[in-house]
Amino acid sequence: MKKIALVAALVAVPFISQAETKAQGSGPSPYTECGIGAAIFQNVGWAAAISNVIWDLGTTAFSSATLSPEMCNAKKVKTATLIIETLEGMEADLASGGGSYTTAVASTMGCASAHNAIVAKARSNYAEVVAQPGYSAQTRQERAAGVYSSVKAAANTVAPTCAVSL
What we know:
The chain folds into two domains: 2-72, no CATH class; 75-158, no CATH class.
């Protein structure tokens, strides 16, 4: 009985806190757009929902929908995952002006048609990040965040229609 009460409380918390600040239904769907399920099953809503429930009864998905709804987007998750997993290659591509990693990230973002313009702008953006004092002391995650921000800003500048949900 205690487990059922705990699960009910965990499920209710996101709805209560979200209701205070937003209109009902205005945020992302924690079942299909957030958590592990959304990252794995980006275009299959029912599979994302089942995966979220199986993984941890949906608590991660509900928490992310409430605490960081801006990250509840499969395209964002897939883009960020690609960047962190291929960081060194991505940085090399940005330094050289393009390559297979930047091609893959543009495709993941849904911006393949604007690849060259995005890479040119992202290269310029990331050059500013690299020039900051303390860059060499950054962790791998901090460098990946810099690449993500550079690529996102580039996409929003040169191809805002494909990057609308980044």
